[in-house]
Amino acid sequence: MKLSKIKSRRIRRIYILHHTHVDLGYTAERNDVYRDQVEMVGQAMELVERGRKRPSVERFRWIHEVSWPVLEYLRRKGKPPRRFFEQMRDGLVELTGFYLNPTDLFDEESFRRSLDYACRLARRHKIPLTTAMFSDCPGIAWSVVDLMAERGLRYLSSAPNFVMSRPLEIERPFWWEGPRGGRVLTWFSDWRYSWYAEGLILKLTGDPANATSALLDYVSRLEREGYRWKGLAIHLAMDNQPPALQLCEFVRHFNSHQAGIEAQLAINRDFFSYMEREHGREFPVHRGAWPDWWANGHASAAFETACSRRAKSVLRRCWGLRDRLKKNIGNELEDGAWENLLLFDEHTWGAAGSVSAPWSLESRQQWAEKRSLAMRGLHGAKRLEAALLKDVCPKKGVTIINPFQSKFHGVVEFTGNNISWTDLALRDSRTGQDIPLQPTDGGGGCAVVEIPSGGEMPFEAVRTGSHRSSHHKSQALFIENDRFEVTWNRKTGAVTRVVDKETGNSIIDRTAPWSFAEIVHERLKGGNRQAMYDPSRYLKPQAKRPRPEFIRRGGHAVPVPWRVVHGPVFQAFRTSGDLPGVTFHREIRLYQRLPRMDIRLRLEKQVVTDYESLYLAFPLAGKRPEVWLENAGTIYRAGTDQLPGSATDWHQVGDYVAVNNRDQTLLLVSQEVPLVQVGDIHTGKWARRLRVDNGHLYSWVMNNMWFTNFPAYQEGTVEMTWALTVQRGAFNAQAAAEFARQIRDGVSVTCAPSAFVI
């Protein structure tokens, strides 16, 4: 017997979007998950065939959340059954755009590759491809909008997990407009009903009568709250869980017990095309970045994150080398490197018990497998560069190649065992000009070189006897180059002034709570991790977030030993000290005749499983400045060009962060550290909006913030670098990108085995 039709009902059609959440790890050892995900491709295909005789709305449908399981199925199984692609063409199975669930570690090339895997497959087999999906991570790089639009993907289906974030404060769906004007119709799941598990929380796979009642109650709630569209999507998935055929019976029961509203098993395209047809011109348009709250997890693996970022820089050099040297080699090496990097950068980092049981076999094994992907990615990238340079490797001396279409004027570092770098120079083999080398802290040497666009310059290492560097406890309390002067406190080693010599102005705020380039340690008062994060929010995401009390200590709050280095390439100020669980060695380096300052940090980290964070403070001068961030090929202003509800407490930085104060722009670049907090240390605030009142930046070096998935501790030696410069005038994105490229991508160097043995 049908229930009476509710006249005020606005929602007429409910689209149940069924998929599995592709969590490569977390629930089981990675190889087991790989196997299960591939097997689910075949299981879904069988269930689709079994449901073909049902009425259309009850037919079983399946969405491949990402393309990796499909492509892996094809790799492992060889030629698929004929029905495999037929089901996709018939709209019973959906291929979606992303290779894996992306994180903010993806750069622009990562997203291109991720999308192009599915695009190539769709073109080859004439499969409809209109939608990309991402699940779990509550944010994604803004550049994906234009990249999707360029490839003809009109729809973005997201199921953010708001367990460690704020929800978006936007009516759904909405047209998301990209920086270059592309648009995609975007849907996100209801934050109150736990990400992609909406359908499970409503118990749609349980008793059909109870599920029908629960879904109708939910629909009524949405309508009371002002939901104004005819269609509604409900995601139904769980981590690495197989297809649920019982959904067909639920749909049959639901549709037979009331009028005026219909449910159907659907793919994303069904839902979006219906919504666009019925309401397309009514949906709001939003233009802004969607920074990811979960990016904080990248600081839980500082060494591995650094490997991933360095690998992408090497690969960018390799593209330039290929063009310059006219070589088309190493494709397998490049593909292998990217496969490892995409698998590392995707959102699953460790076992479910990674924090609650960090010493278990499962936690250790899954993290060992995950972290190896970053290292293999970097190793593969370096092997590719070595293969491209093989034919230009000199019999003696050094060759430096600039593979990019702009002049390089920067630092080149060399390493070698049992080499005395004192009194060495690089002699230009063509002009006879000597370029001094200087020993660095750690057993290497460095030089400042100029290489023209696309240039290749041969050098010979020579012993000059005239370039000596000195390490001493200087009486002077400053170092300088042509651009900067740095002054410090004799007792503590805390930096007191950084002066831009062109203007005579200090570029730092001396009233800030932490001094320039000071390492800051953070822990919880009382040490209780639940003060940082209450796991009950998994079940009650609307619950009030805890507001923890922190104890923070700066590395230069007490006297620390310091020394000064003078040499032909750079002057440096070095300090060392101890904070809870870590010994730090910091160097501030000023290069001769190079308008740049480097900050180099080496951490010797002991194991700590209680919550802790480390920051490096950059209290840059400026009142109410604009703070620009680059990530994945797009730029936005922190707190201004963001979707409401997106991450405010921290931001992921790809190439640079810039603080603009009308007449000058301070640029900060880190090769290894992607996270920054703007204006203050915001951890634990979960702010709805970010107001930028000053130019203070806090580079988030390390944390073990999460209660699951991410590593519970870090250990060993980790080295990190930052570079800073000042540019005159308003923020110039092109100039900022060029400075960042000089720092991050550098030049290619090939040395004879005995180049520096003189």
Description:
Helices cover 25% and strands 28% of the residues. The chain is built from 13 helices and 38 strands. The termini are far apart.
Number of strands: 38
Number of helices: 13
Cα radius of gyration in angstroms: 28 Å
Low-confidence stretches: none
Proportion of helical residues: 10-25%
Mean pLDDT: 93
Strand-pairing-aware structural class = alpha+beta
How far is the first residue's CA from the last residue's CA?
Answer: 95 Å
Give the percentage of residues in beta strands: 25-35%
Write down the overall geometry. globular
Question: Strands of the largest sheet, in order across it?
Answer: 18-25-26-27-28-37-34-33-30-31
The largest β sheet comes out as: 10 strands, antiparallel
